[in-house]
Amino acid sequence: IIYADKVKAYFITEDKSLNKAIAIGNVIIENKLKEKTSKADLGIYNSSSETVKLEGNVVIINQDSSIRGTKGITNLKTGVSNIIGDPKNKKRVKGVFAPIKKQNKGD
């Protein structure tokens, strides 16, 4: 699910499926399957690679852990995210990490 101030969607003409979406301003991307939330100023979703590129004030939250940077990319299939800082402006990647909570059987 993508939330933003503005989202522009590009569809494939033949089958009307989503090809790409560009979200601008207060971008929030929820991946409920992987229990992750990503936030940024800009998000670009690519359906063929199932990735989201993030730019500007990037925050990725996974349960009680979070990581912050200037740019990032998340693979929605695998749930793997890569974050980079901004070496020109001496902004480093920052993170807060907590153990992953395991669900008990029957919950």
Q: Would you write up a description of this structure?
A:
By secondary structure, this protein is an all-beta fold. 0% of the residues lie in helices and 59% in strands. The protein is built from no helices and eight strands. Strands 1, 2, 3, 4, 5, 6, 7 and 8 form an eight-stranded antiparallel beta sheet that branches. The chain is globular, with a radius of gyration of 15 Å. The two termini are 24 Å apart.
Present the secondary structure layout.
Layout: E1 2-3, E2 6-11, E3 18-31, E4 36-46, E5 51-62, E6 65-75, E7 81-84, E8 94-96
Antiparallel strand pairs: 1-3, 2-3, 3-4, 4-5, 5-6, 6-7, 6-8
Please name the defining characteristics of this protein.
single chain; 107 residues; mainly beta; eight-stranded antiparallel β-sheet; 59% strand; globular
Short account of what is shown:
The protein is mainly beta.
